[in-house]
Design a protein that fits this description.
single chain; about 450 residues; disordered N terminus
Length: about 450
């Protein structure tokens, strides 16, 4: 495996006016992108009410979240390939339109299977929105400073969706029921869809011999290291962001609104992190992209260890600092990872790179969230004889706080170990990249 760090200048392939970014570019993209993290963190808050309304089958309930994540992961590869051929604007428009349809079906569902199918369809749509958006931002400006600024805003928007997702969802569930969440998703994306024709029309000519899905990008040490950062976050952060509201319901008896509000110490730093990273890299010499990533990985592992303090009897205030660390562990590298990863490959591979990056990001989320939920349900089932009661507890029902807390601690401990191991792999890849660069400089000299 060899490190490939030489970069082709990031220039748009179509120099006419339709490829130039307009004042509508960022608002249109950011509004649609805002909905995607809400589809994960916000939907999880509604799971206890969905279970109460449509049934608490563990498998079907898990796929309300996992169906979205799995489809998002797989179809980032599909849309990554298609977007390099059909154009990033058309990819975004297709995803936005499909997301509106999926959201309406989700809200109108009368059984769990329909909800799962609709959320899977929403994952397909989300992959198109995310792939088209990141490729447009990477190619719309030739200036590295402009790309960094745009990706910082892009990351902050993702952080805002994650930060507000649990709180807004909790309030909406208490006010309008779980169906109201999906209606809000559809309305927001519909507004973005209505203005999507204002996006720049950027596309690249296909290079002769170019592979359909080019996983050789992973031979680029920097691209691979950047792609593993969200994998570590999926293991140590996204699992908690998704199921911590359920744990707070089962262990501490919180309502959806209370759980959503309690998530703020963990979610607000996700919003602030990308803006802080952009400011530090611009103004502090030692604050390089890799420095910020290393800081985020340390915060991730320490924060996970601190969350082991969640218990039926310990004061909840003990969780505040670990939640803040976890929030910054996810927020600091948002946007930065996309900019660094996509910027490390030739521009004609931007869509494919975004597809591979997001496949690893969302694929890992789908796998670890599914594994987290399955392991938690299995551990709870070992300690509660009645399967229906065990399923209800796994879905957030009160009455067996100690059982849920014990299962939570075991699963979180495993997640912490895997997060730390992934962080070590990232550090090894970074060192290999640095050595490769030094060797090439010495050979050239």
């Amino acid at each position: 495996m060899s490190s490939t760090t030489e970069q082709t200048p990031q220039t748009a392939a179509v120099p006419d006016q339709t490829a130039a970014p307009s004042k509508f570019t960022m608002p249109v993209i950011l509004l649609a992108v805002f909905v995607l993290p809400m589809g994960i963190s916000g939907t999880s808050v509604a799971l206890p009410q969905i279970a109460s309304d449509l049934g608490s089958s563990p498998t079907l309930l898990q796929w309300v979240v996992n169906g979205f994540n799995a489809a998002f992961a797989v179809f980032t590869l599909v849309w990554g390939v298609l977007s390099d051929r059909m154009g990033y604007k058309r990819t975004f428009i297709a995803g936005a339109g499909l997301m509106v349809v999926a959201s309406v079906i989700s809200a109108a569902s009368t059984n769990m299977i329909t909800v799962d199918v609709a959320r899977t369809l929403a994952g397909v749509a989300g992959a198109a929105i995310f792939t088209g958006s990141s490729a447009i931002l990477s190619n719309a400006h030739t200036s590295p400073e402009a790309r960094m600024r745009n990706f910082a805003i892009f990351g902050a928007t993702i952080g805002l969706g994650l930060a507000l997702g649990p709180t807004l969802a909790g309030l909406i569930v208490d006010w309008a029921g779980w169906r109201g969440i999906f209606l809000i998703y559809g309305i927001l994306v519909a507004i973005s869809f209505a203005f999507s024709k204002k996006l720049p029309d950027i596309r690249h000519e296909r290079t002769p011999g170019q592979k359909i899905v080019d996983f050789s990008l992973l031979r680029n040490y920097r691209f691979l290291a950047m792609s593993l950062v969200p994998v570590a976050a999926a293991i140590g952060f996204v699992t908690l962001m998704t199921y911590l509201p359920v744990a707070l319901s089962a262990i501490r008896g919180m309502s959806p609104a209370q759980a959503g509000l309690f998530m703020l110490p963990m979610s607000i730093p996700v919003l602030l992190g990308p803006l802080l990273t952009g400011r530090l890299i611009k103004s502090v010499r030692r604050a390089t992209p890799m420095t910020m990533i290393y800081v985020s990985l340390v915060f991730l592992v320490v924060g996970d260890i601190g969350m082991l303090l969640l218990d039926p009897h310990k004061p909840l205030v003990l969780l505040v600092l670990p939640m803040i660390l976890l929030g910054f562990s996810f927020g600091l590298p948002i946007g930065l990872v996309d900019a660094e990863a996509i910027g490390s490959v030739p521009p004609q591979n931007s869509g494919t790179a975004a597809g591979v990056l997001n496949f690893l990001r969302l694929g890992s989320e789908a796998v670890v969230i599914g594994a987290y939920s399955a392991a938690l349900t299995w551990l709870i089932g070992r300690n509660i004889a009645d399967s229906n009661t065990a399923n209800d507890v796994a879905a957030g029902a009160t009455g067996h706080a100690a059982v849920y807390a014990n299962a939570f601690h075991w699963v979180l401990a495993a997640a912490t170990i895997f997060s730390a191991l992934t962080a070590i792999v990232i550090a090894v890849l970074h060192r290999a990249e640095v050595r490769g660069n030094a060797r090439r400089i010495a050979e050239a000299g």
